[in-house]
């Protein structure tokens, strides 16, 4: 279980995009996403599928200010090598806001997530079977993004600087099984900054208005970038294991296409990738956004 600044950025996009496109009032979003994490020999590779729902309410003022709150639920299924797998349930609360002053755009917010993890671990020892555990944790995140909007031909260009900070606490656990592990509680904190540029295009099609977005940025992180766990077998000494790390320096690439099926309903497909430090992370998502 690891939730860091990357989730804060996704939450920031949720609030900012829906607020910008769907006006005041209630909004909702459903999504499904697939991602692949390649640890490049540092840790086991992992495949993840996530389903989620988020609902929110936002308001705006004539001055260009906007604020909102949102609640969400996600369920992720993660499968690693050697038939190890986990189910992660997340409950999320988010407050976000934005200001427009001239060409400058300021967005930010704070989020709180509560997680419940059910893990299943296969042991390659005859008669040992599968070891299971259930534990929980929480993540607090803050984020801010400052951009400068300009036009370049048919595109709207926005260079930006972004910062996100996350604090996580995970409770200890005890597995059930013949070769059971126990894990100690842990705390971590990490920060990521991004310098990037975003480009948007809007096209009219027979099926509805089509919005295209491309984004690229350089990411620098510090703090607890590699998830660590301190484990022990019954009666044995403690040892540490590492999960798939986030790169200290890397690049992100994103592309999204959103089709306005009606004035209040948008269907979006997108790609998000991160490269750096020998770690590769690629993901696809499909989501439906609706304003009530």
Automatic annotation (TrEMBL):
InterPro entries (UniProt xref): Autotransporte_beta, Autotransporte_beta_dom_sf, OM_autotransptr_brl_dom
Pfam families linked to this entry: Autotransporter
One term under GO cellular component: outer membrane
Domain Autotransporter positions: 19-292
Name this polypeptide is given: Autotransporter outer membrane beta-barrel domain-containing protein
Source species taxonomy: Bacteria, Pseudomonadati, Pseudomonadota, Betaproteobacteria, Burkholderiales
